[in-house]
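Subject: design request, 410 residues
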């Protein structure tokens, strides 16, 4: 029977998913392998009749520059009981599968390692190679190499963000914009700085103080007052969703916003618009201060995940896909594929990224002290400083509360 490989995609989509799948397929097809796409992520391996698609060259060629994922994704994460009772070993034996290729985040990679160990215990050794993805750019790849999908998401987000800023200029309103990024502010910072937003707020900015609702709102209001001082009645404030996730439950409950709560008593943040919440909070404070400003909430996130990849990701994801075959041909397994800036392919093992104590992969954060970030803070953002105190008193009795650097304890 012809040897085959299986490809599955896990987690949420990112631009370049199809490029990776199509490139992996092209590399293996020309070497005589059968390529099977496994729909539904890992759920397909824990049911008797998985949904699959045979990927030939025409199929691969058709999807390679498209957004989304033609191989259907899933966040399914198997339990120990699933392995004991539902694992479909027959899929691997009947199809002579020699390699499982997974495309997803670190959870997807960890599950791939579990499957490889399980198959080995069943005397069916199989290689597994993972292609890491996230539009958040928070995986600590060497040499600050971006995660695939980030460049495309940033480009699409910037195009959308610029439209919001033009609307703000046209209508003399303020837009409160929120961008995806649960753990790190790369996407929000990249979009906000590219659009020249006068205020950008990401979790990494609170490196010397605790994140609170008051501080977030005061940073936005600081920018609004500063612009009023110089005669500008419009603007956009970018607030990373990660700022919201960094708030304590007590802060969220004390904000005055009504939430639904999960069975553990935690606010269900994934079901709400962070931009709408911040917009309402800022509006309420502005009314109390007697400042007449209209704010409009807009969310940037799901509109980025399935956008068509830009040229950078088309090439990068192609190299990642071809790199899977190179590593497999060298006998590598239990690793992620990593492509250096010069195109050199190397295996990257989870143990090299994991924290030695917790075993978790720490997120790559924005280096808030870098010259690039400092330049944006000093030349693009608008905010109250000591020199503005007298003029700011026309809008607030105590300008020190809205001093950008004092809010952040910088």
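Subject: RE: design request

Done. Sequence follows.
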């Amino acid at each position: 029977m012809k040897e085959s490989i299986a490809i599955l995609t896990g987690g949420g989509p990112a631009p370049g998913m199809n490029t990776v799948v199509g490139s992996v397929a092209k590399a293996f097809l020309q070497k005589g392998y059968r390529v099977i796409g496994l729909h539904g992520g890992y759920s397909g391996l824990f049911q008797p009749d998985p949904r699959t698609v045979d990927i030939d060259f025409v199929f691969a060629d058709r999807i390679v520059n498209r957004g989304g994922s033609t191989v259907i994704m899933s966040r399914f994460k198997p339990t120990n009981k699933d392995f004991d009772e539902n694992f479909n070993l027959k899929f691997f034996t009947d199809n002579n599968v020699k390699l499982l290729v997974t495309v997803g985040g670190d959870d997807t990679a960890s599950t791939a390692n579990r499957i490889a160990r399980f198959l080995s215990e069943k005397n069916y050794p199989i290689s597994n190679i993972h292609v890491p993805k996230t539009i958040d750019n928070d995986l600590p790849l060497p040499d600050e190499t971006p995660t695939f999908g980030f460049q495309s998401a940033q480009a699409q987000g910037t195009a959308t963000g610029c439209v919001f800023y033009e609307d703000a200029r046209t209508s003399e309103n303020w837009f409160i914009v929120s961008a995806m990024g649960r753990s790190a502010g790369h996407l929000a910072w990249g979009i906000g700085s590219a659009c020249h937003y006068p205020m950008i707020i990401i979790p990494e900015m609170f490196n010397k103080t605790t994140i609170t609702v008051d501080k977030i709102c005061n940073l936005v209001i600081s920018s609004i007052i500063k612009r009023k001082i110089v005669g500008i009645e419009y603007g956009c404030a970018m607030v990373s969703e990660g700022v919201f996730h960094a708030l304590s439950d007590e802060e969220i409950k004390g904000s005055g916003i009504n939430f639904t709560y999960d069975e553990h008593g935690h606010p269900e943040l994934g079901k709400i618009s962070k931009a709408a919440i911040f917009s309402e909070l800022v509006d309420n404070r502005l009314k109390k201060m007697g400042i007449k400003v209209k704010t409009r909430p807009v969310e940037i996130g799901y509109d980025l995940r399935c956008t068509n990849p830009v040229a950078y990701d088309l090439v990068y994801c192609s190299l990642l896909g071809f790199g899977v075959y190179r590593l497999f041909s060298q006998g590598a397994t239990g690793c992620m594929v990593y492509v250096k800036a010069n195109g050199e392919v190397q295996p990257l093992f989870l143990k090299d990224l994991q924290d030695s104590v917790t075993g978790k992969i720490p997120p790559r954060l924005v280096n808030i002290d870098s010259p690039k970030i400092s330049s944006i803070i000093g030349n693009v953002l608008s905010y109250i400083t000591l020199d503005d105190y007298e003029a700011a008193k026309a809008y607030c009795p105590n300008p020190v509360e809205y001093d950008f650097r004092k809010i952040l304890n910088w």
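The radius of gyration is 24 Å.
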